[in-house]
């Protein structure tokens, strides 16, 4: 989560800096304390608790890069980077839909593009990791705007870092969610492969097997998709 310096309350109340549309969170559930050198979260005696990395906290807890906070049903990832400015942080003042951090893919896409532009590949990959973890927990269709933005983000990171593991994640995401890979996405993957020497993992083969399963279930698959995935498995699947 990107936060400016200061004290920021989180909860169901519209007066909170970050408002949650989540009936199991308290009206004023928790409070972030941010200064130039540290970030802490404080549970405000909430009924259902505030959790950091799965542990319920009492009082205040210092946060570090990569910590995962759960407030009600909402998951928030803490990110630390010198590529983030106040303009990015202000965009996090938003209402959250139950189970989905509204605007997160758009924000992450902007952060990823900024990190790539200034040569911060490591930051871009950290943002992509946080985004992948968030989307992986949500149920949505492949043509959902958040799904499309997230897929594009992973492909851009793969393309600009040369790390094929991000394409492996794209295929695993499609397989796990039983998504039929869209034609435009398929073209972007093929374009990224021109710059990537290898793809670790078994994502391609897993997705090829998932397509066969979907076909047996009667799902209509584009012939081009089936053919291209087969070609990619032959070319990259054993690497």
What would your notes on this structure say?
By secondary structure, the chain is α+β, with helices and mostly antiparallel strands. It has helices spanning 86-90, 104-117, 121-136, 145-161, 165-176, 183-193, 203-216, 223-236; strands spanning 6-11, 18-20, 30-34, 39-43, 50-52, 55-56, 60-62, 68-71, 74-77, 95-96. The strands form two sheets. A six-stranded mixed sheet has the order 7-4-3-1-2-10, with no helix packed on it. Strand 3 and strand 4 (39-43) form a beta hairpin. Helix 2 packs antiparallel against helix 3, helix 4 (145-161) runs parallel beside helix 6 and helix 5 runs parallel beside helix 7 (203-216). It is elongated, with a radius of gyration of 20 Å. The two termini are 36 Å apart.
Q: Short summary of the structure?
A:
The chain has helices at 86-90, 104-117, 121-136, 145-161, 165-176, 183-193, 203-216, 223-236, and strands at residues 6-11, 18-20, 30-34, 39-43, 50-52, 55-56, 60-62, 68-71, 74-77, 95-96. With 239 residues, it is of the alpha+beta class. The strands form two sheets. It has a six-stranded mixed β-sheet, with no helix packed on it. The protein has a four-stranded antiparallel β-sheet with strand order 6-5-8-9, with no helix packed on it.
């Amino acid at each position: 989560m990107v936060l400016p310096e200061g004290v920021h309350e989180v909860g169901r109340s519209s007066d909170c800096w970050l408002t949650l549309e989540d009936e199991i969170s308290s009206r004023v559930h928790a409070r972030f304390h941010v200064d130039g050198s540290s970030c802490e979260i404080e549970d405000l005696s909430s009924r259902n608790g505030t959790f950091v990395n799965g542990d319920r906290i009492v009082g205040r807890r210092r946060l570090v890069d990569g910590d995962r906070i759960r407030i009600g049903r909402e998951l928030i990832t803490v990110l630390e980077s010198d590529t983030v400015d106040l303009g990015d942080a202000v965009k996090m003042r938003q209402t959250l839909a139950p189970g989905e951090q509204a605007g997160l893919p758009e924000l992450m896409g902007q952060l990823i593009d900024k990190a790539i532009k200034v040569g911060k590949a490591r930051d871009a990959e950290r943002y992509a990791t946080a985004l992948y973890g968030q989307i992986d927990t949500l149920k949505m269709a492949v043509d959902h705007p958040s799904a499309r933005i997230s897929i594009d983000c992973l492909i851009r990171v793969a393309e600009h870092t040369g790390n094929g593991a991000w394409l492996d994640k794209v295929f695993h995401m499609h397989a796990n969610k039983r998504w039929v890979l869209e034609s435009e996405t398929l073209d972007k993957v093929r374009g990224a492969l021109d710059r990537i020497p290898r793809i670790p993992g078994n994502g391609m083969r897993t997705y090829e097997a998932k397509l066969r399963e979907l076909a047996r279930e009667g799902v209509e698959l584009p012939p081009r998709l089936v053919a291209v995935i087969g070609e990619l498995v032959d070319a990259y699947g054993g690497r």
